[in-house]
Amino acid sequence: MASAGSIREELIPEGSPELAADGVDPELLALPAPARGRRVATLALMALAVVAALALLASTRRDIAYFFADSAPLELGEAVELDPADLQSNTFVTLEGTPMASGLVSYGRVLGSSSYQAFPLAGQRNVYVQVPVADDDAARTSPRREFSGRLVSFGEAGGRFGTVRRFLENKMGMPVSSGSYLLLADEPPSSYLSGLALAALASLAILVNLLLFVRLFRAIHVTRDAKV
Fold it and tell me: Are 77 and 96 in contact (CB under 8 A)?
């Protein structure tokens, strides 16, 4: 009967490095261990990427919820007849009212060239409207009094509308609070597809990094030659 040693000699090509009795390549054992600092830095970078992706995912959760909202707007009627208790944030609504030019604020975003105007509607102080504008003079003379879009509270809208809120409150004497509402006109649920794409990208980044973590810490199994 052939021995395990003779079988190993027949299967291993000539010139290949000899294995120890336990099946471990001595040349591999002689190689220097990978730099510990580099490994720690890699793990830290991967962990940071996961945290950043989770933060991005959390920041887009309301945009994603709005993207899947009903495509038919909820009719709120006239602004003067609004009952704040009936309003629900992060919904697609239609509201009618007369813009108050005396409370109008114009501004733009840091990223991009888009310009906007925000103003209250006559007869109430609970809902403000933001409209995108291409020309300030045209916006001021527009007879528009019906607005459809996303209804959010200033508190839930986040820091991007914090400056607008403080300006309305401190500079123009408007009774704006975190509970006041802002209607983002001309922003139906379908316009938030980019939020869904960002969430998908963040989820993919989390999944890839978790798989890499598993591979880095997975034990390597060595199969020894069995005796015949």
Answer: yes
Identify whether residues 99 and 172 lie together within a single domain.
yes
Residue from 68, 85, 45 nearest 208 by CA: 45
User: Which amino acid would we find at residue 209?
Assistant: N
Q: Are residues 31 and 106 in the same domain?
A: no
Q: Amino acid identity of 102? A: S
> Domain check: are 182 and 88 in the same one?
yes
Report which of 167, 194, 212, 226 is spatially closest to residue 59, judged by C-alpha positions: 194
Q: How crowded is residue 125: how many other Cβ atoms within 10 Å of its Cβ?
A: 15
Whether 160 has a pLDDT exceeding 90, the answer reads no
Bridge partners, 115 (sequence order): 108, 133
How many Å apart are CA 111 and CA 135, to the nearest integer?
A: 19
Let me know if residue 99 belongs to a domain: yes
Q: Is residue 223 part of a domain?
A: no
Q: What percent of the chain shows pLDDT beyond 90? A: 33
Task: Express each pLDDT in 84-116 by its tens digit.
Answer: 888 999 999 999 999 988 888 888 876 666 788
